[in-house]
Inverse folding.
């Protein structure tokens, strides 16, 4: 497997992990009390926007020619770093909010 294929596979795996975590948060936001719900929904919305940007950069990276791949990688790295920061911020909000009672 080439370095490029490994890099793309790593990014896809990261997006899958984020998707699972975001789905959990979306469920918690739906069940949260009204005061908390608004904040949690805003976090989910922000993370979703960053995720879509990361997906877009991944698509560009996958379609890039070999010559353009190194240039595209820096853009993808930047998008994924922003997504990591958004996930960290959202995670701190969701961990501070107790899960709804069963």
């Amino acid at each position: 497997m080439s370095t490029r294929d490994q890099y793309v596979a790593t990014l896809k795996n990261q997006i899958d992990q984020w998707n699972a975590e975001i789905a959990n948060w979306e469920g918690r936001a739906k069940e949260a009390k009204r005061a908390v719900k608004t904040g949690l929904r805003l976090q989910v919305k922000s993370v979703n926007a960053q995720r879509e940007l990361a997906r877009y950069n991944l698509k560009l990276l996958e379609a890039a020619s070999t010559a353009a791949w190194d240039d595209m990688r820096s853009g993808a790295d930047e998008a994924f770093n922003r997504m990591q920061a958004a996930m960290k911020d959202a995670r701190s909000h969701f961990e501070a909010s107790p899960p709804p009672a069963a």
In short: The chain has a mean pLDDT of 81. Residues 21-96 form one domain. Helices lie at 3-31, 34-63, 66-96.
